[in-house]
Amino acid sequence: VVSPDLGAVRLAERYARLLDLPMAVVHKTRVGAADVATTGLTGEVRGRRPIVVDDMISTGGTIEAAVRALLDAGAEADIVVAATHAVLPRQAALRLAPLPIRRLVASDSVEAPADSAVPIERVGVAPLLAEAIARLHRGEPIRDLVSRT
Fold this sequence. Notes:
This protein has 149 residues and is of the alpha/beta class. The chain is built from five helices and seven strands, in the order E-H-E-E-E-H-E-H-E-E-H-H.
């Protein structure tokens, strides 16, 4: 499980713990509004198939840089990306299209562009939100609901 930057470390730790997998972190520096440079990688990825997890994909720069860093470090060219929100404007989708991303999974919290160059598997959040609202309405805790997501 790979965090593409320091901001997603907690999320990656949670995935790694749930999946009982090791974790790696890509260190990055922003060099422009949409451009990112990697400055290092912590963790062993050689010969492994990474799962890159992030909260949001907007420009695609962070994911692109992370995937390239993983490939340079010897990871398999069979990468899964999981994002909470995938905005994916056309430019971002074109940026990610040539990368060896086998699956891109994201919630349906943001509507996907109809003509995306990258196929996205959408996971619905409506049932989770409905359950949270119902529990709050009944005065029940949502702690266990959050812990199983």
